[in-house]
Design goal:
Distance between the termini: 38 Å
Low-confidence stretches: 51-67, 73-81, 83-97, 104-111
Mean pLDDT: 79
Strand content: 25-35%
Largest sheet: 14 strands, mixed
CATH architecture of the largest domain: Sandwich
Order of helices and strands: HHHHHEEEEEEEEEEEEEEHEHEEHEE
Shape: globular
CATH topology of the largest domain: Jelly Rolls
Number of strands: 19
Structural class: alpha+beta
Number of domains: 3
């Protein structure tokens, strides 16, 4: 690491604490604008400091102690890239799981006004939170939930992009409604269920653990329809076909991610890869179509991805190759399957 990077390494944390003079601030800004990689690192650091400020206000972490640990570790490290350094900062702060931002801040004169809050999880991570009504929610990897700082309307509306498990506080007078990017919504009165609704997907899947939910959707006649399901069932809405399908579901398999597990029960290989992609924030490219003929059974808990791929290699004829293309803009590690 050259002297300039060492200097920036020391200045960047102070920059986001607002403790630099004009000359030091200029140096940091010039470094940030020097490359896409620098800008990416700066964004990571900014998110960490913004999150630590929010969590400190909520009384969830000792921000001063956490940041002091960051500075101490930075001093003891001899050689590492700034990118690696940014990742180490995230690990020290224990806060990359949940990014909290206020989308609509009220003025000081209107402190009682309702604010819109977004909870977001980083790729490859999960986090839990409690909503204003006491509802418990667990967000899967690369997901976000938008909700008001308090529920004042006749219904408790939230917006989900990604996957989440809900344990909804019962309130028959105020139904809980989960809206998705695919123009479908899940209506709830008090229950436990899983919803998967990533914006890049064309389907919305809701799996019911207990209680009762219904899927509201726009059908192919451009009319809104509603379909209820019972515990142990899953309902899938297709935004392409504009219809729904209901089937029995292996609830423990579908919801295992929230407990840090991956359960496979004669699971097709494409679904296995999809689960691994969400859990570890990687992208798979299957070079051999015969791989899709395989299925797997087992329970994975707290294993590293490398060890999991070793299991698949031993139990089948598959091979996995990490694709090191050096593209800094590529957020996901690419793994080829043969």
């Amino acid at each position: 690491m050259n002297q300039n990077n060492i200097k920036i390494c020391n200045l960047l944390p102070l920059y986001y604490e607002g403790k630099l003079d004009k000359e030091q601030t200029r140096l940091v800004k010039e470094w940030i604008e020097a490359s896409d990689e620098n800008r990416h690192i700066a964004r990571q650091m900014e998110e960490l400091y913004r999150t630590s400020d929010t969590l400190f206000a909520l009384g969830q972490i000792n921000t001063e102690k956490a940041l002091r640990q960051v500075h101490d570790r930075m001093k003891t490290r001899k050689v590492f890239s700034l990118w690696t350094w940014a990742q180490r900062v995230a690990a020290i702060l224990f806060i990359p799981l949940l990014i909290i931002s206020f989308l609509d801040r009220s003025s000081q004169k209107q402190q009682s006004a309702v604010q819109t809050i977004r909870l977001s999880t980083n790729p490859g991570m999960i986090a839990s939170a409690t909503l204003p009504d006491g509802t418990k929610v667990t967000l899967n990897s690369n997901s976000s939930l938008v909700y008001p700082s308090r529920f004042d309307s006749k219904s408790r509306d939230v917006k989900l992009e990604g996957e989440a498990f809900f344990k909804v506080t019962k309130d028959a007078a105020h139904p809980f409604i989960v809206k998705t990017p695919q123009k479908a919504a899940i209506r709830v009165y008090g229950t436990q269920f899983d919803v998967e609704a990533y914006a890049v997907d064309k389907n919305v899947t809701a799996t019911l653990v207990d209680g009762s939910i219904s899927m509201s959707y726009e059908n192919d006649n451009r009319h809104w329809a509603e379909r209820k399901i019972i515990p142990g069932q899953a309902i899938v809405y297709s935004a392409v076909r504009q219809n729904v399908k209901v089937a029995q579901a292996a609830v423990d398999v579908v919801t295992s991610w929230k407990d840090g597990k991956l359960i496979f029960r004669d699971t097709p290989f494409n679904e296995v890869l999809r689960s691994l992609s969400k859990r570890f924030n990687v992208s798979f490219i299957v070079k051999n179509p015969k791989c899709y003929e395989a299925s797997f059974t087992g329970v994975l808990e707290k294993q590293r991805l490398e060890r999991i791929l070793e299991y698949f290699t031993v139990s089948s004829n598959m091979r996995f190759k990490y694709n090191a293309n050096g593209n800094l803009r590529q957020e996901k590690q690419v793994i080829e399957v043969y």
